[in-house]
Amino acid sequence: MILAIDVTKPLESAADKFSYGGQMLLIGMSVVFAVLILLWGALELFHLVVSTIEKKRTKAPAPKPAAVPDVETAASDDDESELVAVMAAAIAAASEENPEGSFRVVSFRRI
Fold this sequence. Notes:
The chain is mostly helical. It has helices spanning about 15-60, 70-75, 80-95. It is rod-shaped and about 100 Å long.
């Protein structure tokens, strides 16, 4: 229970001073937590809006990937340059599907 303090007369006793300080403490903390709750609510609302937009984007049909030549048929040929070209095409097709990922060819090994 918060007691009303008459501000026209000075605070004389220590109990009056502590009571007034306690009231100011409770009011100040209430205001701070109320603002924090409002900010939290605004952030949750923003997250809700952004997540629904992202869900709508992911539901859109993905474009069909480009046809990638079969590596096994190219490996049966004796021409090394054709094998390297097929591998480079496969890597290019994979990088178009996932542009954020990084892929680096270290070496080619013939099986």
